[in-house]
Amino acid sequence: MTTTSPQATRKYDLGFARWVYENVDGGDRLALCMQCGTCSGSCPVGTQMDYGPRKLFMMIRAGMKDAVLSSNTLWNCVSCYNCVVRCPRQVPVTYILHDLAVVAVREGYKEAVESDNARFSAAFNFSAERYGRTDERIVTGKFYFSEGLSAGFKKGMDNMKIAWNMVKTKRMPLGLPHKIKGKGELKTILDKAREIEERHKGGGKGN
Amino acid sequence: MTTKMTYYPGCSSEASGAHLDKSLQSIARTLGIELEPIEDWNCCGASVNHIKGGHAPTTAMSARNLAQAKAQGNQDVVTPCAACFLNTHYANEAMREDKQVYEEMNEALGAAGRSYDASLNVRHICEVLINDVGLDKIRESVKKPLKGLKVAGWVGCQTVRPHAATERGGNFDEYDNPRFLDDFIEAAGAEAVDFKARTNCCGGSVAVMSPDKTIHLMRDILQEAQERGVDCIATPCPLCQTNLEMYQGAINDKYGTHFDIPVVFYSQLLAVAFGGDPDGDAALNQNIIKAPKIAQVAK
User: Fold this and answer.
1) pLDDT of B166-178, one tens digit each?
2) Which domain holds residue B159?
3) What ipTM, to 2 d.p.?
4) Is position B130 within any domain?
5) Which of A106, B11, B97, B120 is deepest in the core (most CB within 10 A)?
6) Does B169 share its domain with B230?
């Protein structure tokens, strides 16, 4: 996926839609959307989204880039894949929403950067890349404190009972984080993958 | 006869889903499946890593695991975790089908002196139990049927969607009305109630980060289970199990309900039915909400 998508220059601008078709995973099938609404109707949280997937896809076609990338649709998707298996045109809706979420954060949309999902992903990614494993203690800890110290303590206290239950049932280890032996190797691979992703900037189907 | 498979346990196996791993290892021994872990496996990225980590690096995380799996042999890769299956299967299929992805992933792996030829099959363990082991063998292995136990089979999402009805996903069930979990429950000698919420979503990782967005989804699942008078809910997914168990207190606080419904893995039911130890094999001591009726059978 490239890191910059074009801004609309007039009211109906196909530039953004074309960019999505070419650069977002599954975007090539977006042009086949016939606006039937099966995706939005199948979505367990569709009613709490600013726009369901059907409407969001029409907005992409209409060039409404800012509204698309600042919508909460991207931050409500629960990755249940109902829309993917039900779409009569085989548009991989969830995959498209996932990649649009990456674009929204990279392009600095306030709603995206400040979303729980972006902060949670940063905490998750920290553990996954640094240790090679997701340590649930590190992820939740970093996520709780990503809104500031007092918010972090409050969230931590609110969830004390859950944490204690997990410790008691040996589902939250008390020792050092689990880590892989090949941390250096993993970093080398991921750095190269990032470099490859950067190469797509400015055109070509991203991965 | 023992079949050897390459095992990807996933990060939850070391923490919140430890009881899935333990009970699965137990039933695999009974059913003659040898699970050899991918050596030094890493995280798959689950449903959230891509936002910060990016698409290609997230795919590369799975590519490293697959390269190591291949280095250990040609046997199929299996995982019991819905998200691990989804990501690893996705990466494998993307490399098989898309030349650009194949070349780019190999370029990334090559930086560390590794490569992967996209020749393996990545499978969910439930699909293996249905297609390779078969329900007959599962039924024959039962020593202590879970008679009188009423169970709501809750499949959730990613175990079946979007791959259960695809050729590469093993075509083992359908999306809207999957049967496999009820079949496991009944093979164990328990009663599978007609559970309409069987493929309802709990919110997945969104439930972990922003429970307010999906707490009503979990309430609906518990509500139906309660109305059907079940002794427990059984699921194949580690995150489903943890979410539905750990949030029952918060749900009761918010909605004034009194849910106290055990949520177990199908593998815990089978481990008990196979005559295993309730804690040593079925890991029933690792459920927060205890299921004494299941433990009773094991005695």
Assistant:
1) 999 999 999 999 9
2) 135-298
3) 0.95
4) no
5) B11
6) yes
- Chain B residues in contact with A119 by the CB 8 A cut-off are 209
Structural domains of chain A sorted by starting position, each given as residue range(s) with its CATH number in brackets: 15-111 (1.10.1060), 116-195 (no CATH)
* B28 and B10 both lie in a single domain: yes
Cβ of A136 within 8 Å of Cβ of B40? The answer is: no
Domain end marker among B125, B146, B175: B125
Q: Which residue of B has its CA nearest to A87?
A: B162
Whether residue B56 lies within 8 A of chain A, CB to CB, comes out as yes
Query: Taking CB atoms and an 8 Å limit, are A128 and B42 in contact across chains?
Result: yes
* In a domain? residue B234: yes
- For residue B91, give the CATH number of its domain: 1.20.1050.140
Query: A83 and A100 in contact (C-beta within 8 Å)?
Result: no
Residue by residue, DSSP assigns B153-186 as E---STTTTTTTTSTTTT----SSS--HHHHHHH
Q: Which residue of A has its CA nearest to B289?
A: A165
**H-assigned helices in chain B:** 18-31, 49-53, 55-71, 82-97, 99-110, 125-128, 135-140, 180-187, 204-209, 211-227, 238-246, 248-255, 266-273, 292-298
Q: Which of residues 19-78 of A touch B (CB under 8 A)?
A: 25, 44-45, 48, 76-78
Kindly report the pTM of this predicted structure. Answer: 0.95
Please tell me which of the candidates A85, A196, A207 has its beta carbon nearest to residue B161. A85
